[in-house]
Design brief:
With 1005 residues, the protein is α/β, with parallel strands linked by helices. Among the domains are: 114 residues, 3-Layer(aba) Sandwich (Rossmann fold); 95 residues, GMP Synthetase, Chain A, domain 3, CATH 3.30.300; 81 residues, ACP-like (Non-ribosomal Peptide Synthetase Peptidyl Carrier Protein, Chain A, Orthogonal Bundle), CATH 1.10.1200.10; 217 residues, NAD(P)-binding Rossmann-like Domain (Rossmann fold), CATH 3.40.50. Helix 12 links the parallel strand 27 and strand 28.
Length: 1005
Amino acid sequence: MVKYVRTRQLAEFHGRAVPYSQDHTILQLFENRAAAAGDAPAVTFGTRTLSYRQLDERANALVAQLRQRGVGRGDLVPLLMRNGLELPVAILALMKVAAPFVPLDDLWPADRLNAVMSSIEPKAVLIPADAALPDGTPVLAVDVDHLADADSGDVGTPAGMDDVIYGFYTSGSTGVPKCTLNIHRGLLNRFLYMSRRFGARTDDVVLQNSRHVFDSSLWQLLWPLTNGSQVVVPERHGLLDLAATVDTIRRYGVTMTDFVPSIFNALVELLAAQPALADHLASMRHILIGGEEINTAAVQKFRSLVPHAVITNTYGPTEASIGSVFYEVTNDDVESIPIGRPIDNTWAVVLDEQCRPLPPGEIGEIYIGGDCLGLGYLHDPEKTRTAFVDNPFAEIPGSLLYRTGDLGYHRPDGLLHFAGRRDQQVKIGGVRVELSEIEVALLAHPDVREAKALVYELDGTKRLVAFVTVRGTPIVDDLRGHAQVALPPYLVPTQFVVLDRMPLTPNGKVDRKHLVAIVSRQPPSLDDEELLDGAEGVVQDIWLKLLPLDAVGLDDNFFDCGGDSLSAHRLSLALADRFGVGVSIHDVVRAPTVREQATLVTGDGSTDHPSAPVLPLVLADAALSADVAVRWPVVRSGPEHILLTGATGFVGGQLLHDLLAGTAATVHCLVRAGNPAAARKRVTVALREYRLWNDDLAARIVAVPGDLSRPRLGLEDEAYQRLAEVVDVVVHNGALVNLAFGYDAHRAANVVGIAEILRLATALRTVPVHFVSTLGVFPAVAPGERFLERPVPESTLPADGYSQSKWVGERLMAQAASRGIPVAVYRLGEVMANSITGVPSRRGLPDLLVRACLTVGACFTSPITMDYTPVDQVGALVTAAVAHGEQGHFHLMHSQPVALDTLLDSFRDTFGLRQLSYRAFWQALREAAEAAPDDNGLASVLALLPPANMLADRELDERLTALFRHDLALFSTTRTDRLVAECGIRRPAIGRDVFDRYAAYHREG
């Protein structure tokens, strides 16, 4: 029988009752979805997706293992796991046996983990397959690949509404973390409310943007599974990387997620600095923000950049089932943003110290009641009684209210506003922190006599600061090391201040206002010899704006000085803005000192050397998955059906034209589009733009809507199967090319898709793969060395993000070749305008320079030399290699370099351009860019060119020369020359007639 809660509007107590069925827990809602639409995608992690049926089957298999360990109803089970497919499998399995799950963090110090384990006394601790715990811990490793299909069988009485569903550990005021317990009713009510508010859409894609040890992760991970929609679990690498988050949203078409305000504010800074990234958020419909006080200006800025996304402010403690108060931000919220109104079946009341309701506008403590309330704290009845008090109001259902400790007030219209905290508890990055826990940990150091912690806000960023008095000589590094061992990462202070004595108020208490005054940054008081000049001085100045310090030295480490992921993100944006170069957060990590960062942004010295150390993420990406393997004979005939990626790009359009003209094959073009008609239109428009369209060849073009960065190339099963059956050659040319972006920005398009291409090439038969790469994969070499047409060196990495992504791609192709897949790799130099039509790549640096000259009305003299390989020659060479079944490596380039001055002579004569020095040209370009702030082309050129106002003549020449690879004699072309000779390919000389056709194109257009 369906049970319903009573319904009555209680406006004066700001809550309402709404009937909802309590016959089904969220587990049963998921199981219903699995039964009704088992093949629908449920959870995606990286390149792998589990359907609803697969997720349910694996959870059932884990249930059998849990029962063997004696885990059953009411047993608390720690989840010492990471992001991945194992996490939802484990949670669902525990719900099936009615055992509450308790997420733990493997980054916590051992003492903290041991204390938690002792408190829970678990029958099993669920861990990843590759993790390990001390002997004696009852671990159960979870591996989705080794969970055999099984029926969960009779697991006993299912959990009821009043049974515990989960526990989350939060910071404790006594120095010991406390476990907050919540029940099924609270989470069910929250999820059903969200379905009513946002719609129960099966096409939603929700990003689990919170780490699993924070309760906000629950709605992101579980709510979609009650609606039949999809969850994306991101791959994390231990560092906040918002560019990667934006790319994940774009790659998977995420429609909804959650941010804490501090991270959201940093995202807005990134979008403001790189507005083009806003296009990657086109799929977003809803963004929830919660965990700490919201920043009005940042929210409204985001709404202007991504106007189609609805932002909802959320509020609610862990003790009350995640979030219990919601508010949708509007255009009217320009001064402050309310936290809103309670969700259904939840009440919020503002009370004075005598627990009396306060009228609108008066500040008091916020109390929460209703179905959202949990049961309190594990093994701590005293703390539970203090926080969960008797409910004196007949108008509010339930016997208890939760004292949030937050201050707030109601407006006359009933909207609730946040007004601070009443105790030492604070929130940083959305994480609830008890300052007392930090102080207790610091006092455990043998040399610390007194310890106090507080939160200091600088430029909108909150930081933990520790004040200590010590015995003997204070060593800050020692204190920091002690804190890192004793506390989880989010509780480690970013700054330590050693005092002779603690400042006291007249009544003998520590004067916290005085401590704030001490840490408040004063103007730098550096001696003249400590002030840095040039780029180092600029970097130093940026640091001092971001860090709570008065001084930093040339070789200080940014992170040792109090920098964290958020401030490193801001630093990367500031450096990029100030110096006009692409700087990623990973660059900041690799070059953490003032000296190294100055070298990084000026391009001097080893930091910017083309031979950079291999990053862990890049190295991990360079390992080809074991499931890419040869299971079928290699297709030797053809080509009759060619799969081409990147057909709408400059090189790809030429390849499509030449493959159609040079073979009899049908060419299937993988194009990012919503349907075949839209994909076909993109191909047609591109070929017409490049003046390559041919009506006679059009019948052999098949446009395939898909996405390189998505599993199975973003194709439905039927389309994927059909393509795998007919394709006998793959030409993989699709790539993102942006020299100002780092590796992470290129990773999805240029790396993730390669494994998917290779899977398709071996799915139903084994077909050759032709991969278009770049000469930029090579690092610098010692004198006398030469780059041969062979696999890329494995020991070093090129400097820019695009070349790094291609380096990884070549490593993957080399592994594919070693497994028996026929592979050919084509390394391109500077691909220039078509030698016949004069049509250039509008996105390439050469044409950006040309258009900048046309805008300014002048060209400049420089020492720049470059490879000049017309795109039609690239197309002819690759087509010949495909037709002849070539394998191995080819350097597609001209052996004779071209001076940029010679190329610009054609434009100077055609357009009557003035001839300027580089310094005069750069100044004119800068003024033109400032006068046209929306001209992305001018902005891009200015970002890539060396700043003439900051460098000496010699440095300018070096930086200009480095814009293009000019050491062309270093590249062997023996194999390419053989191919040219055998196939009779014509390679005309590059001279004035070719340059004039290029200039004529611009004159006509």
